[in-house]
Design goal:
Elements (H helix, E strand, L loop, with lengths): L1 E4 L2 E4 L16 E6 L5 E5 L5 E4 L5 E5 L7 E6 L5 E5 L4 E5 L5 E5 L17 E6 L5 E5 L5 E5 L5 E5 L1 E2 L5 E2 L2 E6 L5 E5 L4 E5 L5 E6 L28
């Protein structure tokens, strides 16, 4: 099967990942690639992070018992990784071996539903060119939260609705090299664009539910999956 168009056409290899006997992804929340082309599959099975080489050979796993419901992966230019867990209501900055360097949110303790406070089923994480952290939040909020690189909350924006700066499931987020913030507003069938402080700039409507996308920032290997989905996930 060939997918894509123009210069971006790819052949699907359904048997690429060589899983150990009896192992399963169950569901894949996100995928990231490090500077050595190793592939990190953040999934909802018994082994939340499975690591493969570029040929699909299994290398290792980690995170067992630590991630209730995998949702998002972002690998930074320095090969640190941001993992977003919507079931646990937290974001963790980790090394490629899973050592936690920074944690945002309190695992297992969500903010009140639609309170606007972080987090209630957060979905993804993005980095600005300066290293600021943006978190889309998510299933139980209609907010984007901005943090300093060391994890201090700077500001939040968004509320439920269909207008500019309003969201109906903030499902994915990324930044480009100029610092614009792109937010996948899933059930409103659009992508909204903001400056780095949450000021609305523009939006683009899609004919199907936009679940995820990617922004390329020079050598930054963005790991947001470029996909669209017709069903909620």
């Amino acid at each position: 099967m060939i997918v894509g168009s123009g210069d971006y056409r790819y052949e699907v290899n359904a048997d690429w990942a060589k899983l150990p006997d009896g192992w399963s992804f169950k569901e894949v929340g996100g995928v990231g690639v490090d500077s050595n082309d190793n592939v990190y599959v953040f999934n909802r099975g018994d082994h939340p992070m499975m690591v493969f080489d570029r040929e699909g050979n299994f290398l290792r796993s980690w995170g067992e018992g630590q991630y209730p419901r995998a949702h998002g992966v972002h690998i930074a230019p320095d090969d640190t990784m941001f993992l977003t867990d919507d079931g646990g209501h937290f974001v963790r900055k980790v090394t490629l071996d899973g050592k936690v360097l920074l944690e945002l949110g309190v695992p297992g303790k969500p903010a009140p539903y639609m309170s606007g406070e972080p987090f209630h089923r957060c979905t993804h994480t993005a980095l600005s060119p300066q290293g600021d952290i943006y978190v889309s939040d998510g299933y139980g909020n209609s907010r984007v939260h901005k943090y300093t690189p060391d994890g201090k909350l700077v500001l939040s924006w968004g509320e439920p609705g269909t207008g500019e700066g309003e969201f109906n499931i903030v499902h994915n987020i990324c930044c480009d090299a100029d610092g614009w913030v792109y937010v996948a507003d899933r059930e409103n069938h659009r992508v909204q664009v903001f400056d780095g402080n949450g000021k609305f700039q523009t939006s683009g409507r899609t004919c199907i539910v936009r679940a995820g996308f990617a922004c390329h920032m020079g050598t930054n290997r963005s790991s947001m999956s470029a996909r669209s989905a017709r069903r909620p996930r």
